[in-house]
Amino acid sequence: MATALRLSIFLLIELLVLPLQVVAIAAYSIKLHRKNRPLGISGTAYEPFFGRLLMHAAGSRQDDVTFRIAPHLPALSPATAWSLTRTVSLACRCSGYRGWILAYPAERPSSLATMVNHRTHFFDRVLAEAVCPGREDPVRQVVILGAGWDCRAYGRLKESGARLFEVDTPRTQQAKREALTKAGVASDHVTFVETDFNQMSWLDALENRGFEPSHPTFILWEGVTMYLDDEAMRTTLRRVARFAPGSCIAFDFFSRELVRAEAPFVRLGKHIQRGMKFYGETFQFGVSTKVPARDHVRELLTSEGLALREYEPFGEERAQKMTLGGLVLALAQV
After folding, report:
1. From 1-10, 63-72, 176-185, 306-315, the region with the lowest mean pLDDT
2. Which of 161, 185, 205, 219 is at a distance of 20 to 30 A from 242, taking alpha carbons?
3. Are 244 and 219 in contact (CB under 8 A)?
4. Dihedral over alpha carbons 247, 149, 129, 55 (to 10 degrees)
5. What are the DSSP E strand ranges found in the chain?
6. What does each C-alpha distance from 243 to 129, 236, 305, 333 come to in angstroms?
């Protein structure tokens, strides 16, 4: 079946189920503001979660645990989760279409609409490579900083042999553990660590729970840096730089110009700032993406004792065109 025909069938089915999806999104928004936010539970954690949930529904990225915990998260319900996932699954299954926003991995260069897909694939890949049993020096610990609703620790990563830590704020972590329990997902192989990245040392909290800085460690830091102040960001990088040889940190960032709503992202930056009010959060940190952006990323890492291993931009960088941000894999140099 030609791609154009698949897309046409997909859009037709989506048009038919759109009223159900609109009701589900409205129900989610109401619960987010009336239940989720008053409890101090992360709202922005839902954005990457929805991306992975819909990719699973589309059949482009398998993530059973994400699907299972969705009905039990504070801002969702069984009816809301069903309405969002089953309708997308129906449209994809009947049409055979999984392109653009539901694709995994996302097409390169990525856009604002496909950024979550791109980010998800990048972190999936570098994490899988780090814990690969056939690797000469596989990491022995994996720390997911600001874990939110991330479910990687309950899939293939569970069989890697690495010790797994999830770090997040107390109320967000409590909500996740309750969702895992209600969904019947075992979590006894994960060490949960409570902290606040802007107020408490996450490393001290980790060490109190048995973390060993002398062991090669992979730090996964997805969707967090933009909400931190500059000192909290740099302090984290500086601490990882002192970890054992073979340790690394993978993180994403937004353009400093986008975060500050400066040229060439004045309009988009202001629009995103208004959108963040929905979650009651604001962007603070960014790395300049003035061409060449890789140099600014390398400068940040080097200043804190890390070495740049991989860099992928969000969008296409050319001549005077700046990107929206990027993805980084950095190595400790001790």
Report:
1. 1-10
2. 161
3. no
4. -160
5. 141-145, 163-168, 190-194, 217-221, 248-254, 306-314, 325-332
6. 19, 11, 11, 8
Residue closest to 300 by CA, chosen among 238, 221, 216: 238
Mean pLDDT of 242-267: 95
d(Cα 292, Cα 319) in Å, to the nearest integer? 9
Cis peptide before 19 (omega within 30 of 0): no
Q: Are 122 and 19 in contact (CB under 8 A)?
A: no
Contact 42, 148 (CB under 8 A): yes
Helix axes 293-303, 230-241, angle to 10 degrees: 70
Q: Are strands 325-332 and 306-314 parallel, antiparallel or unpaired?
A: antiparallel
Provide the token pair at 165: 């830590």
- Out of 15-29, 34-48, 97-111, which region has the weakest mean confidence (pLDDT)? 97-111
Residue 96 is encoded by which pair of tokens? Answer: 């055979």
Which amino acid makes up residue 312?
E
> What is the C-alpha to C-alpha distance for residues 84 and 67, in angstroms, rounded to an integer?
11
More confident site: 277 or 299: 299
Starting from the edge strand earliest in sequence, which strands make up the sheet with 190-194, in order?
190-194, 163-168, 141-145, 217-221, 248-254, 325-332, 306-314
